Amino acid sequence: MSQLFPELYTKGSKIWIKHSTDVWQCAVIKVNFSQKDKSLVVEDEEEQEITLPVKDLSCLPPLRNPDILIGANDLTSLSYLHEPAVLYNLRVRFLEQSAIYTWCGIVLVAINPFCDLEIYGEETIQTYHKSQGAAQLDPHIYAVSEDAYSKLERDDRNQSIIVSGESGAGKTVSAKFAMRYFASIAGTDSSNIENRVLASNPIMEAIGNAKTNRNDNSSRFGKYIQILFDRQSRAITGGNMRTYLLEKSRVSRQSEGERNFHIFYQMCTYAQQNNLKHLKLDSNTEFAYLASIEPTPYDDMDRFIEAMQCLGFTEKQQNLIYNVVAAILHAGNIEFTRIDDEKCCLSDDSEPHLQTFCSLLGLDSSATKQWLTHRLLKTGMRELITTTLTAELAQYGRDALLKFIYETMFSWIVALINKALGPTNTSVTYPFIGVLDIYGFEHFETNSFEQFCINYANEVLQQQFNQHVFKLEQEEYVREGIDWQFITFTDNQPVIDIIEAKPIGILCLLDEECKMPKDNQPVIDIIEAKPIGILCLLDEECKMPKGTDETWGAKLYSQITLGEVFQKPKFGSRNSFIIQHFADTVVYNVEGFLEKNRDTIWDEQIDLLKRSTVVDVLFSDGLSGEPTQKSGGKIKITPQQQSQKQQKQAKATVGSQFRDSLAALMKTLNATEPHYVRCIKPNDNKGGFEFNNIRAVQQLRACGVLETIR
Ligand SMILES: Nc1ncnc2c1ncn2[C@@H]1O[C@H](COP(=O)(O)OP(=O)(O)OP(=O)(O)O)[C@@H](O)[C@H]1O
Ligand SMILES: [Mg+2]
Question: Nuclease among the record's keywords (predicted)?
């Protein structure tokens, strides 16, 4: 820390002072500083003299690096390493050298240039691949990829490239370049496997990406793709993908200025161009689920179709996707007319849409009509009665059904991709490089269940990062023969506990009790130290027949101790709670948490789908209805296991499924050697080579890069 050397604060030396719009501004010291001084006189860039109070030496402002060091391609080579130094160095490299990549120790910082650069060609790939020790080369996503590839061989250890950053920062683009790198250097002459791995991208983008206010091609799901290599030849031999938390609510509702998933628009254009009359997607029909039909660069279906063909999707499978997509659009146009306070019926205009929906999905139209407007209610142990639905409930049920169909199709497509990428020899375990492209920390004006899950995932990833950096430092101490030192890093375990702690079971408590025959204080400590977490309280409330978002909110306050991590807003409603995340403080609104966690879909409607001879395949291919996929195509499931699995799944809430899939991801990541890419979005207007200091600092603070260099 520069502040520890007060003798460096001499007349003419440059320092950094806080600035309202630039975050940090350069200033020059006017008078030599001596230890007993209580202030420092400096002159800012506007030639204004400022006297900075210096209560103690820790209040001295950060020193600026000598000009000769500025623009270094590894931040750790700077003499002074602090927030203003990092920010300024990144800015200079970006604006003056058009250098978007910078090393920050083991992390590659990637700033989105928002324009195409000539730095990704085949020649560049070969330069990185032929280099000895990519770390010495200029920072680049290819340098990270090469490092992972060479370590896979050298250390005989699986590798992961963890890409993070906020929406529009360039995660998916980075992940695709990494995949392209591997396809290029480890492709095969005979099989087409590397192209199949790449073909997964346009498919996933069509069904999982959408235009949002922050990114025209925003991934609305998280993805971890493993590229498998042959142990001997190191050529790509297969792939496997897991996805996380698809934002299916987008199917039925989009925020102002946003769109539905690209596939819906692609399908309309394609059907019109190719005269697919049976889909009834002519340009005269307006679809309620399509927010904006203004053309965008993402409306062309050619790459999607090419990719499906490359992956060997059969014509029947392709047609099923077309049918499902079109059917969802038609069913979204089914409206309900109120008959009285308890009953509704389909509006007259809805009839043709209902017919198309049913014919495309092979459903019985009178049964469909029945279960769109009625429900079965349990009255006794075994008794069921049919009850009518209000127009509002019917609409809710329709949306839930269509979101479910879409999500099921999404999972089924992921399973098909995994089948197509699966290596021919399934009895061998192959070394792999995994690429994680997962949503970064989110903080909006209103934060709901989705932001809660996303930020929880980021806490867990941040902890993984901290632990890795900590481990590396320890190893270095041992290597250099330095006495073991304790390096402090912000431990975010308390935040993770408050989110995910499970109640301790009776058996576990009993075990503890048996170990401690005399004194039960340790048991009490355990109970008190780890109160039940937010997700478990949410699950419990979802099981309560009368549970509401508000009753859950009240329970949070009665069961979770207020403190640094979990806080109550000073003003405003009881309907919100605050979590101090490692990246920022976020206020969550409880509204909608229960419903989003329950994610109810009525059994009668599911039965309807299962009776169809068209969409039954979506359910029978093993992995449907499951937001996250296990390794696809490898496990055979018997019908009995299938139904047990589905019954079990029916009970699992979205939150608990997410927690489990995150735990599985961490287990995988922890068994690999990680490589970190932090993407930064330098401005909000997608301006080419525009750098906004405030936005950049926000993200640097949130991605944990600054923490590791303190
Ligand atoms: N390396 C790059 N070179 C040129 N343009 C880029 C680069 N990285 C990102 N972009 C531009 O930024 C846009 C957004 O990038 P990308 O879709 O990868 O963001 P993301 O981090 O995946 O966002 P989200 O979380 O919303 O999915 C791209 O469509 C592209 O226009
Ligand atoms: Mg993305």
Answer: no
Band of residue 270 on the pLDDT scale cut at 50, 70, 90: very high
Q: Does residue 314 belong to any structural domain of this protein? A: no
Gap from CA of 217 to ligand 2 centroid (Å): 7
574 falls within a domain: yes
Q: pLDDT per residue over 417-426, tens digit each?
A: 999 999 888 8
CB 152 within 8 A of CB 237: no
- For residue 73, being part of any structural domain is answered with no
Query: Domain holding 9: CATH number?
Result: 2.30.30
Q: Are 599 and 588 in contact (CB under 8 A)?
A: no
Whether ligand 1 lies within 6 angstroms of the CB of 682 is answered as no
Q: What angle do CA 133, 138, 141 make, to 5 degrees?
A: 85
Please identify, by atom number, the ligand 1 atom nearest to the C-alpha of residue 220.
27
Chosen domain end from 553, 575, 590: 590
Number of domains in the chain: 2
**440 noted as active-site residue:** yes
**Residue 638: inside a domain, yes or no?**
no
User: Cα dist. 708→462, 522, 584 in Å?
Assistant: 11, 34, 17
Residue-number span of the structural domain to which 40 is assigned: 2-64
pLDDT in tens, 221-254: 999 999 999 999 999 999 999 999 999 999 999 9
Indicate if 209 belongs to the active site: no
Ligand 2 centroid, distance to 481 Cα (angstroms): 43
Report the pLDDT averaged over residues 153-164. 94
CATH number of the structural domain spanning residue 553: 1.20.58.530
For the CA of 112, the nearest ligand = 1
